[in-house]
Each structure stands twice: as structure tokens, then as C-alpha cells.
Write a structure and sequence with these properties.
mainly alpha, globular, 10 helices, disordered C terminus, single chain
Length: about 220
């Protein structure tokens, strides 16, 4: 029943979402401005949490300048970002599982992800773990997959394990590059992150299949 209701909502056109009127750009600048604030670390934790369920700006935007300003804390920032991102993913699961009709569908519509959301259910029928892992690691909108995991009743331990692996690899990889290469790597990360994330996903999935084959 939830699947049918969610599919029917996708057909409705959304009049307003975050990509209109330059709101995304203003949100981006607002998040970036927190890097110089006293409570930047707390802001990073909050951003990582809400991005996993409804906020459109990824925490990398704030994590990178914080890591560059304090390189010795880069891995600590990666740990915080991973932890709160996974917790936010669990929150997204509960939104989809119990609050989709009242909250979840409004998040999906406001972000303009109706079409993507409709596809996720079919993805989950083949391999939910792999698709959540891909969303957690790459620029694919992770929040769509966390909410959808609740709607399609994906076991929460599947979401948590895939999220820890994907989010952890993503943020610790960024932290490592910033720690060892400094400011000059920042532009490369921003420009080629999708390719780096895809390579990481291929290596990670390949490792799982290799272990399965050898055992």
C-alpha cells in the first residue's frame, strides 16, 4: 500500500523546490560561512545528520575547509561526519517507515526527487545493500535512499551497515587526501569527486565479491 501511495505521488508536479530562485546557491554559501564560526564543529554534526534525511547541501562542503584549517583534526571531522550521517540515515528510515504520508513525501517533492524516488523501490528488489552503499559513497542523493528504505521496509541493519561502509569510505578518503596533500587537493576533490567515488565503489564491491569467491 505504501508503495502504491508513494508511486502515485510521484505523478504530481511539484511547483516549488530547493532548486528554484537560487535557493541552493544561498544555502551553499550559508553552510560554507559556518567554517569560520565558533560552533563550526557542532554545525558539521548537525549538517551531516540533516543531509541524510532532508537537507540538500552535503557535509563535505563544511568538512573540507575545517580539515584544511586544522589538518590534525581531519580524521576526527571525518569520524563525526560519518557518525552523524549514519544517524541521520536512520532518522530518514523512520521518516519513510512511519511518517511518509505526513512528512516524507513533502521532503521528496520539495527536493524535486519524485522520479528518483520511484526508481529506488525497483532497485531495492534486486540488491538493497549495494544500492544504499552506492548512494552513501557517491553524489547520488543519499536521503532518497534512506527514506525509501523505510517505505519499502528494508531491514534497518542493512541500511546501517551499508551506510557505515559507504559514508565512512567517502569522508575518510576526503580527510586523508586533505591531510596528506593540503589545499592543492581541494580543487581536485571538488572537480573529480564523482570519479573518485565511483572508483572507491568499484574497489569496495570488487573486494566483497573477491572475498565471497575465495571463501
Amino acid at each position: 500500500m505504501a508503495k502504491e501511495r508513494s508511486a502515485s505521488r510521484v505523478e504530481k508536479k511539484n511547483i516549488f523546490h530547493f532548486y528554484t530562485f537560487g535557493i541552493m546557491k544561498r544555502l551553499y554559501n550559508w553552510v560554507l560561512a559556518w567554517a569560520d564560526k565558533k560552533y563550526a564543529t557542532a554545525a558539521l554534526c548537525i549538517l551531516a545528520f540533516v543531509e541524510s534525511s532532508f537537507f540538500p547541501i552535503p557535509p563535505d562542503i563544511l568538512m573540507m575547509p575545517l580539515s584544511l584549517s586544522k589538518p590534525k583534526r581531519a580524521f576526527f571531522y571525518a569520524f563525526l561526519t560519518t557518525t552523524f550521517s549514519v544517524l541521520g540515515g536512520i532518522f530518514g528510515w523512520y521518516i519513510g517507515h512511519g511518517l511518509y504520508e505526513t512528512v516524507g513525501h513533502r521532503i521528496i517533492e520539495t527536493l524535486g526527487y519524485q522520479a528518483k524516488f520511484a526508481l529506488v523501490g525497483s532497485y531495492y528488489e534486486s540488491n538493497a545493500f549495494l544500492y544504499i552503499l552506492a548512494a552513501a559513497l557517491t553524489p547520488i542523493p543519499y536521503k532518497v535512499f534512506t527514506i525509501a528504505a523505510g517505505v519499502w521496509s528494508i531491514p534497518i541493519h542493512t541500511l546501517v551497515l551499508a551506510s557505515i561502509l559507504g559514508r565512512g569510505l567517502r569522508y575518510f578518503l576526503v580527510a586523508a587526501m586533505l591531510y596528506f596533500f593540503g589545499p592543492r587537493i581541494k580543487e581536485i576533490i571538488e572537480k573529480y569527486f564523482e570519479w573518485l567515488a565511483l572508483l572507491g565503489l568499484i574497489l569496495l564491491v570488487g573486494g566483497f565479491y573477491a572475498i565471497k569467491y575465495v571463501s
